[in-house]
Amino acid sequence: MAENKNINTSNPTDLSKVNEKAPYQDMTLGNQVYGGGGSKEFKTGEWRTQTPVMNWEKCVNCLLCAPFCPDSCIPVVDGKRQDFDYDHCKGCGICAKVCSFKAIDMKEGL
């Protein structure tokens, strides 16, 4: 594959340069991934149909739920589980499924 030397490699995912008048040299090549994706910049939790709700009385802080969350929406600070990051939680329910203590309930809407 020929290398395109005109490509913006300093920040190939700089979306501020993408507009209808942008020259092709400032665009990333199609089907190329230059870095890991994520939703930290964009709130993606507003379209979920179910919302995880913690029952803190049942939670034993085993932290089993945190590594199973596909969107890293269960923060752990100083070895203690924090409340959900609802800005990015998609409501998949994996955390509720893996919780052996039934400390997470999935609620419709919310």
Automatic annotation (TrEMBL):
Q: ATP-binding: is it a keyword of this entry?
A: no
**Which coenzymes or cofactors are required?**
[4Fe-4S] cluster
Keywords assigned by UniProt, alphabetized: 4Fe-4S, Iron, Iron-sulfur, Metal-binding, Pyruvate, Repeat
Q: From the UniProt entry, list the residue stretches annotated as the region Disordered.
A: 1-23
Keyword Cell membrane recorded: no
Domain (4Fe-4S ferredoxin-type) spans 50-79, 80-109
Under the heading PROSITE patterns, the entry gives: 4FE4S_FER_1, 4FE4S_FER_2
Pfam (any one): Fer4
Ranges of compositional bias, category Polar residues: 1-16
One function term, GO molecular function aspect: 4 iron, 4 sulfur cluster binding
Q: Which InterPro entries match?
A: 4Fe4S_Fe-S-bd, 4Fe4S_Fe_S_CS, PorD_KorD
What the entry lists under SUPFAM superfamilies is as follows: 4Fe-4S ferredoxins
Q: Which NCBIfam families match?
A: PorD_KorD
What is this protein's name? Answer: Pyruvate ferredoxin oxidoreductase delta subunit
